[in-house]
Amino acid sequence: MDVHGVGIYPSQDDGSIYLATHNGLFKKDVGNNSSNTTTGGWIEVGKDKSDFMGFTINPTNPGVMYSSGHPQTGGNLGFRISDDYGETWQKVSDVTIPTPVDFHTMTTGNNPEIIYAASGMGDNVFISTDGGKNWTITSSPGGQQVITLAANQSNSNNVYAATTGGLFSSIDQGKNWQKINNELISSGNDIMVTGIDISLDGKIAYAFAVPNSASQSNSGFIIKSTDGGNTWSKTDGQITGAIFVSKCLR
User: Fold this and answer.
1) Cβ proximity of 143 and 166 under 8 Å
2) Cβ–Cβ contacts within 10 Å for residue 212, how many?
3) Where do the Sortilin N-terminal domain residues begin and end (predicted)?
4) pLDDT tens-digit readout, 184-221
């Protein structure tokens, strides 16, 4: 099963985890009935078997989540919203800038009207400031292919971009980008960052970095910042042998 997105509502006590996959949406109620099915606790959500390429939850409104991708019949889903924990979906908009697009990564922060997205196929970052009804292209983070986006959970104007050429941040809704440099992720295009996530207060960030250079080990590592992204260090716990992590859950 290909997993394209992961979501947890921070205000839910049961710790339910949602997986957006190539064959629809799945859920695991970690705090309740995680072992009462033959699928290791994972249960299908709703009847939509679409390929959920892009997926994110609304952290301020439990039950609300967003998706993009491909229906089983082909084509693009556009940008969609669910207000019943993924049981049903409604299309909000077709994204046709400049041609039809399906999003491979999406993120939103404390202002649900501001949503960031990327197609996974280039350096364009898309933004909607009206809850997904309309979309525009912001500036490119260093001309690098965007893998994952993460909005600051306490200030939606701030967003991180994990790219094939490192980690970038913006404090003005993606209009301008700054490359994050330190001893761990400062070696130009030799470091690819595949995953990024931000704590609810916006102060703690986790990212997954992978050396691109053939002269380096291709095993990635988890890095952490506790000062809003100014400085970074490796975490004590690491995933041995991992080479690609696209989602870091706080």
Assistant:
1) no
2) 16
3) 124-244
4) 665 544 678 888 888 888 888 888 888 765 445 557 88
- May I ask the CATH architecture of the domain 3-187? 7 Propeller (2.130)
Query: Measuring CA to CA, which residue among 153, 148, 175, 156 is closest to residue 245?
Result: 148
The amino acid that residue 218 corresponds to is: N
Let me know if 63 is exposed, middle or buried by CB neighbors in 10 A (0-12, 13-18, 19+).
Answer: middle
**Residues near 123 by beta carbon (within 8 Å), at least 6 away in sequence:** 140, 141, 142, 143, 144, 145, 146, 163
Beta-strand (E) ranges in 99-219? 105-108, 115-118, 126-128, 136-137, 146-152, 155-163, 166-170, 178-179, 191-198, 205-211
Sequence letter at residue 229: G
Per the DSSP assignment, residues forming a β-bridge with 192 are 210
* Residue 222 CB contacts under 8 Å (≥ 6 apart), including other chains: 206, 207, 208, 234, 235, 237, 238, 239, 245, 248
- CA 244 from chain center: how many Å? 14
